[in-house]
Design goal:
This protein is of the alpha/beta class. Helix content is 37%, strand content 27%. The protein has helices at residues 15-26, 39-44, 53-61, 66-71, 91-94, 105-118, 167-170, 239-248, 252-257, 301-322, 326-329, 331-353, 366-379, 382-393, and strands at residues 2-5, 8-11, 31-34, 50-51, 73-75, 78-82, 85-89, 100-102, 123-124, 128-133, 141-146, 149-154, 157-160, 178-193, 203-205, 212-216, 222-228, 263-277, 280-281, 284-286, 292-293. An eight-stranded mixed β-sheet has the order 7-6-15-16-17-14-18-21, sandwiched between helices. Strands 9-3-2-13-20-19 form a six-stranded mixed β-sheet. A hairpin with a 2-residue loop joins strand 6 and strand 7 (85-89). Helix 1 (15-26) packs parallel to helix 10 (301-322). The protein is globular, with a radius of gyration of 22 Å.
């Protein structure tokens, strides 16, 4: 067995783990990242593309913001489409100048990987049989198998950034953790294609045939989605069928401007709201998808992970520079307070824009009528639009 020592061992080399490692490195805190998948696999995951100002600021703080600032697309608003018309939500004007940016999670991951490699920091990919040990003591450790050998990393702290299916949350006894979950009765069929965007801003569409979203990754690459059944299979959806369905769910002007082309990636994703409480177990801390999942309708997944990393990195830095455990002890409370607000907003946006199956006692599709009334109120009320805009660009932190 090979044994090594570090200050913080991070499980998971996705954007949250890499960002935490980079922030700790810049503060002089030694860390090792252990990832079960290969680096190429991590980079191949097609995920979020809308990042809040807080995520942008963290990437700049981590020293990896140069390409983002050069290539990212600043968005000052979004468009809501319903009843055949689009309505502009002025994020910038309603929030005192705040914006969001289009910059894909894949690009963020690549920037962080490059920075970590340049600094010569240790990242273990393709680690098998990863296990967490003694996390509720002052001497936690992690073990893994690789190439027929067993390795152990001893640390002061373990940061679980290993996603919804990761080992860290699963290592906590069921009696010590409470899970809150809602699984939605539909999915998102998404495609990536190298064609120009329909609009300069994202279009969120509520339509009798189901929700649709026109998003983008750049001025020449789009990411579009349509609501679909959880029973649908990818082989049921040819590119032609997808483009036809998307076009039918847009207003006439957007439909006329829709560019089509061969998909370079296509996938169906289920939607769920999920939170695990608490997020701290002795010296094991959960962050990102290991602790929470949001439906993507509110563009909060990656941003919420960045929020956790901001709180956690500052708490680690406080521990090592000021010899104070206060920030780490309070991490779970602070993080969860912000998480639940983002979960509420994502649930609200999902409930507002998707077509739900009729439930018991729901005659005449009351839900659809309620959505139309809410949307009509929303686009005609500055107070309601301001509330949406404030949540969309990201709520302030508790300091």
């Amino acid at each position: 067995m090979t044994i090594s020592r570090t200050q913080v061992v991070i499980v998971g080399a996705g954007p949250s783990g890499l960002l935490l490692g980079q922030l700790l490195h810049r503060a002089g805190i030694a860390n090792v990242i252990v990832e079960q998948r290969s680096g190429d696999y991590v980079l191949s995951r097609i995920r979020a593309g809308i990042i809040e100002q807080i995520c942008q600021d963290l990437l700049i703080e981590a020293g990896v913001g140069e390409r983002m600032l050069a290539e990212g697309l600043v968005h000052k608003g979004i468009e809501l489409c319903f009843a055949g018309q689009r309505h502009h939500i002025d994020l910038h004007g309603l929030t005192g100048g705040k914006t969001v940016m289009v910059y894909g999670q894949t690009e963020i991951t690549r920037d962080l990987m490059d920075a970590r490699a340049s600094a010569g920091l240790r990242t273990v990919y393709e680690a098998d049989k990863v296990a967490i040990h003694d996390y509720d003591t002052s001497t936690p450790s992690l073990s893994y198998h690789q190439h027929g050998k067993v390795y152990t990393v001893k640390a002061d702290f373990i940061a679980g950034c290993d996603g919804f299916h990761g080992v860290c949350r699963a290592s906590v006894p069921a009696a010590a953790i409470q899970n809150f979950e809602r699984v939605y009765p539909f999915g998102w069929l998404g495609i990536l294609a190298d064609v120009p965007p329909v609009s300069d801003e994202l279009i969120y569409s509520n339509h009798p045939r189901g929700f649709a979203l026109c998003s983008m990754r750049s001025k020449t690459r789009v990411r579009h989605y349509v609501q679909c059944s959880l029973d649908d299979k990818l082989e049921d959806w040819s590119d032609d069928r997808f483009w036809s369905e998307l076009k039918s769910r847009l207003d006439p002007q957007a439909a006329a401007r829709l560019h089509t082309g061969p998909s370079i990636e296509k996938s169906i994703a289920p939607l769920r709201s999920f939170v695990a409480e608490p997020m701290r177990f002795g010296n094991l801390f959960l962050a990102g998808d290991a602790a929470h999942i949001v439906p993507p309708t509110g563009a909060k997944g990656l941003n919420l992970a960045a929020s956790d990393v901001r709180y956690l990195s500052r708490a680690f830095i406080e521990n090592y520079t000021e010899k104070s455990y206060a920030g780490l002890a309070d991490y779970s409370r602070k993080a969860l307070r912000r998480i639940w607000k983002a979960e509420r907003f994502s649930w609200y946006m999902t409930s507002l824009l998707h077509r739900f199956p009729l439930g018991p006692g729901d005659t005449g599709n009351v839900g659809a009528k309620m959505q139309q009334a809410e949307l009509d109120y929303l686009v005609n009320s500055k107070a309601a639009m301001t509330s949406l805009a404030e949540n969309y660009v990201g709520l302030p932190f508790e300091e």
